[in-house]
Write a structure and sequence with these properties.
Blueprint (H helix, E strand, L loop, with lengths): L1 E3 L10 H5 L3 E4 L1 E2 L2 H4 L18 E6 L2 E6 L5 E3 L2 H6 L5 E2 L1 H11 L14 H8 L3
Parallel strand pairs: 3-7
Antiparallel strand pairs: 1-2, 4-5, 5-6
Length: 127
């Protein structure tokens, strides 16, 4: 899922305003808050082209770089092992809280740093 820099007090938003929004957080999040109705659907738009991160994985005693879609993998360099994260899935409340912190409604938590769009973009270029 991707969290954008767009905030509104109502559910009415025009497509142009939404399409101009910038991604601020990206990550693998469970969709339970969409399915149970806590996050209402505002609009259904085509999915924008966003980068997907690469992850490090460990097989036996070696580390590898793996693409988000698991289609490509190669042995990781020592430098890549220090900057890449292991693949992780987050509860949707992490995205909600990250957005609240971004807009100054809640305190910033260190876990949000790995979800910043610029971090994901950087990691998407490893493979």
């Amino acid at each position: 899922m991707v969290g954008y820099d767009i905030k509104s007090d109502s559910l009415a938003m025009d497509d142009c305003h939404i399409r101009k929004a910038n991604p601020v957080f990206m990550g693998n999040f469970f969709d339970v808050l969409i399915r149970n109705g806590r996050w209402p659907t505002i609009k259904q738009l085509t999915i924008p082209n966003v980068p997907f991160p690469s992850f490090k994985i460990k097989i036996e005693n070696k580390f590898y770089v793996e693409t988000w879609d698991r289609q490509h993998m190669r042995e990781a360099t020592p430098e890549e092992c220090t900057i890449l994260q292991f693949r992780s899935d987050h509860g949707p409340i992490i995205l909600e809280n990250a957005l609240k912190a971004y807009f100054g409604l809640e305190p910033w938590e260190p876990v949000f740093d790995t979800l910043k769009a610029e971090t994901v973009v950087k990691l998407s270029k490893v493979i």
